[in-house]
Design a protein that fits this description.
This protein is α/β, with parallel strands linked by helices and 215 residues long. Helices cover 40% and strands 23% of the residues.
Length: 215
């Protein structure tokens, strides 16, 4: 596990985790659209890479009550909050958490499963130094016939320049870097793993929404 990155994330979220969901709902756009698109098969398995406070896992578990849900994060501070939120939501029997590094994880070792029907990453890649490796690892964790879903910050290409400069400067304070080469990376990984890729901008370039799926 990348110890330095884990310590950095714990330092950032030691306090923020207590009000993270309240503030992020205003600018982490596209998360709920991603969750609706998951549509796992009946009794299917869903994994969130970088689950944070478990906000997304809880919403997904409520939407698909017959599914099984799993999540991991590199931050022990976030996982502490996630576990508390899951218990409060009464979903401890349907959501399983673990600590792990998105760039190099073993789903079988963490959860006893070789793959998942749906894997998703919501605003995590912009905080992971080895983000390309994280996408490749997540794609390998998708079971046959399953999908990988991604949403993250875009390049703001159709928004005012002042907005882009201000947003990027603010994000940088939290070690968040929008990935300009996300679409290209998805295409490369799709070719390497014989998958179909789809990546498109949302909200005039505010966010990327990507998917890797069977050809």
């Amino acid at each position: 596990m990348a110890t330095g990155h884990a310590e950095r994330m714990d330092a950032i979220y030691a306090t923020q985790r207590h009000f993270y969901d309240l503030t992020r709902k205003y600018y982490l756009l596209g998360r709920d659209s991603l969750l609706r698109d998951l549509d796992p098969p009946e009794g299917g398995t869903v994994l969130e890479v970088g689950c944070g406070t478990a906000r997304n896992l809880i919403a997904a578990a409520k939407r698909w009550p017959d599914g099984r849900f799993y999540g991991f994060d590199i931050s022990s501070a976030m996982l502490e909050t996630a576990h508390r939120n899951i218990v409060r939501a009464g979903l401890a029997d349907r959501i399983t958490l673990a600590r792990g590094d998105a760039t190099d994880f073993d789903a079988q070792a963490m959860f006893g499963l070789p793959g998942f029907d749906r894997v998703f990453m919501s605003y995590t890649l912009s905080m992971i130094p080895g983000w390309q490796d994280a996408i490749a690892a997540a794609a390998r964790a998708v079971a046959a016939g399953g999908n990988l879903h991604i949403v993250d910050f875009g390049q703001q290409e159709r928004l005012p320049r002042w907005f882009r400069r201000g947003l990027f400067a603010w994000l940088d304070k939290f070690d968040v870097t929008p990935r300009a080469e996300l679409a290209l990376t998805l295409s490369r990984i799709a070719q390497a793993q014989s998958l179909h890729d789809d990546c498109r901008p949302l909200y005039r370039g505010y966010a990327w929404k990507g998917r890797l799926s069977p050809p």
